[in-house]
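Handout, page 2. Input:
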Amino acid sequence: MNSFSIKDLESLSGIKAHTIRIWEQRYSFLKPQRTTTNIRSYTCDELKTILNIALLNKYGFKISHIDKMNGDEIADKLVSLTDSQARQEKLINDLIGSTIDMCVDNFELILDDFIKTKGIEKTISQLIFPFLERIGLLWQTNNINPAQEHLVTNVIRQKLIVGIDHTVPLINVNRSVLLFLPEGEYHELGLLYMFYVLKGRGIEVLYLGANVPVRDVIYVANMKKPNELYTHITCVPGNMKLEKYLNQLPEQVPHIPVIITGQLAQSPTRTLSPHIQLKKTMQEVISHFAQS
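Output:
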């Protein structure tokens, strides 16, 4: 059984902890348990409640009015939201709820419905990545069981692989990119997404996958001579010498630029070679590869 801190609720809902405390005092929809040291603890249902209430409040419903609604009325109001951004945020909340409840069928249904209407690329950029950014906060604090993480990430992985298999580029360009994850890094979704994007744009992809020793990256790079090396770093073990690993690439294959996205690019605290380019967003990477 998951339990969540007020910080978790703040991170996932966007509602400040101070505001959540005020809501608890004035309204009845949140009744957290407290430890002996007076630390609040929230249930799965309370987390889902605050996500729904925060969404309705963001799009014009007063908290005092929401407090008087029962669960069915709240659900009806959520369904009635017409703003496209609001509907997208609702689906992300639904993905979070399905993850917490381990409702894999419902999780997959949400993705399948969106893929049918919007396509796999928009599903990834508008649903999957925003979902991963938010739920990742819980994974980092160990408030989501690893089994819950594996269930949903494997569903996402399957969708990406199907998307890659069915992608037929309209043109082929004279460009190739080697995709890999460093040793100790197993979070493959960002890499698979870039595989999908590059293939769709006619760029040849050399896909090494996760947990690749640096010598293997260097070997393939020297043999195949790609135009760029690309990796998406979500998280690596603390004992992994990531800086040393990455800096070996421009030393051994100085003629090939290295492109990095992910957590490292968000807060670059390491001393990296000038031949390594950090891109903060996937859109920056896509724009980079779109250049001739």
